[in-house]
Amino acid sequence: MARLEPAAAGEQAARVAERALAQPELARARGVLACLSFGAEIDTWRLVERLLAEGRAVYVPRADPRDGRLHVHPWPCPLETLTFGLRQPPRGAPELAEEEVDAALDAVLVLGLGFDRRGIRLGHGRGYFDRFFARHPVAGIGLAFEEQLVDRLPAEPHDLPMRVVVGARTLVRPGARS
Length: 178
Description:
The chain has about 180 residues and is an alpha/beta fold.
């Protein structure tokens, strides 16, 4: 995806945040796992702060290559910066036990390189979110720039669709009739 001009990216991110907050999955969520954006992704930092200000419990993910799992950490927490720029909690930071995740989370805000009309997400190729959603039946909400929404992405049998994908103008609800 070509990088958007900062003003255009900021404008789209603000619209995506407002539209995401209006979706029933997020509007009624008390506990939200939110990706922390980096690089050219939709800015989620302000959305995270807004969720906190609204009294929601916010959590952030940590992908751990040692066990292949996505760990869930209460926000705010310390962060470390990985070599490619992603910031995530360090191993050893307080986190939810695996058996506490389902009771704590109502929605997951997910970023990606792209999303399609079926809700399939193109990530960074490690499968952390697919494994997470296979274990935890929580609503996945994809946040995307309009330029990241395509008709169809390649998919593997283990790829799980988002419940909804929110763009600045486009809303994708896989399985919903238009």
